[in-house]
Amino acid sequence: MNGYTLFLAVTDRTGLPEPAFALTALAVETGRLEEAEERAAAALAGLAPDAAWPGLDPSVRREVVTRVRSVPHYAVDHTEHDHAPARSASPLADCLRSLAEGGSFAVVAAQPYTVYVTGGHPVGDAATAPFLAAARAVHPDAEARFPALARLTTLLASAAAPSVDAAVPDEEDLYDAFDRYTLGGLA
Q1: What is the model's pTM?
Q2: Measured CA distances, 82 to 1, 17, 50, 105, 134 (Å)
Q3: What does each C-alpha distance from 161 to 12, 17, 19, 24 come to in angstroms?
Q4: b or e along 58-73 (b: 16 or more beta carbons within 10 Å of the residue's beta carbon)?
Q5: Distance from C-alpha of 164 to C-alpha of 130, rounded to nearest angstrom
Q6: Rounded to the nearest 5°, which phi and psi values hold at 40?
Q7: Crossing angle of helices 58-68/33-43, nearest 10°?
Q8: What DSSP string runs through 113-178?
Q9: Whole-angstrom Cα distance, residue 51 to residue 29?
Q10: CA angle, 15 as apex, 7 and 90 as ends, to 5°?
Q11: Which of 125, 137, 140 is nearest to 90 (CA)?
């Protein structure tokens, strides 16, 4: 079994209205990683490297959703830390725990997997969280190794808020491009 490769975009919104923290994850079967990278690059062609979903024109969003459907993937998850900050020593560790225990990523956590972190936010004290500690390897440099999949995961992170709020039509919802996805708060 080849296992999975996960891309994690950590969104730290400390100082902003709740939720203050979120985690977006894209899982690809490791055997299809190169294909996924190539297709993600093609799907994101023409977008600025720092493009954010809410800032894109609706026609561009529809086109990107259509193109992203060709990217092989196992699952996508977006988890927002929606518990009171006082209840948590590490919001990222809480998000990682929720990811590993609930939904389709529980299957991933039971297989061999490698993690790539994108978004520029360090994992800090969450590095010892069981989900990261159980990985074959954790790489903080997703952009250097798999730039298109890192960009796609970051774009998914920027698309999460309007998707959670159902503020965009289905054909403009980037999460709608995936066969298996979860949006929401902690399990």
Answers
A1: 0.90
A2: 35, 11, 26, 19, 25
A3: 13, 12, 10, 11
A4: eeebbbbbebbeebeb
A5: 27
A6: -65, -40
A7: 160
A8: EEEEEESS---GGGGGSHHHHTSSEEES-HHHH-HHHHHHHHHHHHHHHHHHTT-S-GGG-GGGGS
A9: 26
A10: 50
A11: 125
Contact between residue 71 and residue 40 where contact means Cβ atoms under 8 Å apart = yes
Q: What is the residue-level pLDDT of the chain in tens, covering all 187 positions?
A: 579 999 999 876 655 555 567 889 999 999 999 999 999 999 999 999 889 999 999 999 999 999 999 999 999 998 877 666 566 667 778 888 888 887 778 888 888 999 998 876 667 767 778 888 888 988 888 888 999 999 999 999 999 888 887 888 888 999 999 998 887 767 5
Cα separation, 92 vs 12, in Å, equals 9
